[in-house]
Amino acid sequence: MNLFLRPLIPMVFVLTPSLVTQGNDLFRQHVIQQLQETRKCFGCNLSGVNFSGRNLQKIDLRSANLQGANLKNANLRYANLEWADIRNANLQGADLTGAILKNTLLADADLQKANLEASNLEGTDFRNANLSHANLRKASKNNDVQGGNSITICETVLPNGMISNRCNHQTSFENLKHIL
After folding, report:
1. How many CB atoms lie within 10 A of CB 4?
2. What is the DSSP annotation of 3-36?
3. Which residue of 56, 123, 134, 145 shows the fewest CB atoms closer than 10 Å?
4. Does pLDDT of 145 surpass 70?
């Protein structure tokens, strides 16, 4: 091997992970730019993205990966989030009025003070989600709730307009079936 190239080999191994990370970041920025232009991103990976306070009204994010995303106070009115993975996301104060959340994974999500009025919640997975002070008025019923985990509801506006008065109490999925 050329004596000139031998010292460069360790440097290649040191720089390669950094270059891969930069490439992923550039690709992610391209995806976000495309999303802003087209308002669509079917099946894209937006895990951990910060869309806090953003206007994402009527956006199409079907089957998107939004795990761990920050969507606090985001406008997601009439957004299509069908089959999206939004586990561990921050949706505090998010406006999801009329959103399609059919078959969406919202396990371990923080939906405190979120507005889910008139949204489609069929088949949505809320395991261990926090729905305290959320508005579920006129939301579609979730008949597919499964599992033994629980959901936190506290002064939550339920689909029938009633307000749950249970605070610091987790409701089992079985009880939630009767509520939703």
Report:
1. 7
2. TTTTTHHHHHHHHHHHHHHHHHHHHHHHHHHHHH
3. 123
4. no
Expressed as residue numbers, the domain containing 2 is 1-38
Is residue 161 very low, low, confident or very high in pLDDT (cuts 50, 70, 90)? confident
Q: Would you tell me how many other CB atoms lie within 10 Å of the CB of residue 113?
A: 18
| Residues 6 and 65 placed together within one structural domain of the fold | no
- List 152's β-bridge partners, or say none: 130, 170
Structure tokens at 69: 């995303």
Same domain assignment for residues 26 and 59: no
Q: Output the CA torsion sign for 140, 141, 143, 149.
A: positive
The CA-atom distances, in angstroms, between 162 and each of 42, 111, 155, 166 are: 36, 18, 9, 12
First CA to last CA distance, the chain = 70
* Dist CA 21 CA 152 (whole Å): 37
